[in-house]
Amino acid sequence: MRIYAAQSVQRYKKILAENPSNPKKTLFTKLFDPEKGGLADDEIQKEAQGYIVAGSDTTAVTLTYLTYAVCGNRRIRDKVVAEVTALSEPIHDNDIRNLPYLNMVISETLRIYTAVPFGLPRSVPSGGASFNGYFLPSGATVSTQSYSLHRDPTIFPDPYTFNPERWENPTKEMKDISIPFGGGSRICIGLHLARMELRLGSVLFFREFPNAQRSDKEGMSTKDMEMQSFFLMAPKGHRCLIETE
């Protein structure tokens, strides 16, 4: 990943050198300009590595589990297919961002299969802080992880069941406790892009393969899809086989 990030930085620097007045714009273009608070190459490389991890594997894993979950329930799949096949070409996010059932499916996928399900540690600021009747001393490490929150049966009845309809009329508690992208001032800055990618990827897949279903070929089973996480979560078997006919 470091090598790829370094190569990408050098490749873009070459583009800037060849066309400094009108380069191809990217999220990183201003970072190369020292007059606009630019960064050193190694700092840009670290930022690039963050985007590679946070902006690719996370969405890919979520789409994998969304496809797996939907293809495992014909009723859900047929409702998704009916909604997305009614769209007219060309497909644009403006046309799909408000699709009711697809967005319920995405919300339920993010609930059960959060790509970063573990807590992200934070340090209590100087002077300490009080929370819910407890005093937290300065410098203490605290975190909130989504895995347990998203499975709280008092908020999400039958929490281990993939049920998109639970998001048809979500309660305030459901909204408050759902943190697939984190929360607060450090919430994921790419959440809107991620949702756009999830919508578009889902629409294109189920329009192309309306009869998709889970496969049991090559010994594929639910064990392959067990969640395994060290930081990012991914299927334990590192595969998800789907049949399209």
Automatic annotation (TrEMBL):
Protein name (Swiss-Prot/TrEMBL): Cytochrome P450
Top-rank taxon: Eukaryota
Gene3D superfamilies to which the protein is assigned, alphabetical: Cytochrome P450 (1.10.630.10)
Lineage: Eukaryota, Fungi, Dikarya, Ascomycota, Pezizomycotina
A single GO BP: mycotoxin biosynthetic process
Cofactor: heme
Family stated for the protein in its record: Belongs to the cytochrome P450 family.
Binding site for heme: C188
GO molecular function terms listed in the Swiss-Prot or TrEMBL record: heme binding; iron ion binding; monooxygenase activity; oxidoreductase activity, acting on paired donors, with incorporation or reduction of molecular oxygen
Keywords noted in UniProt: Heme, Iron, Metal-binding, Monooxygenase, Oxidoreductase
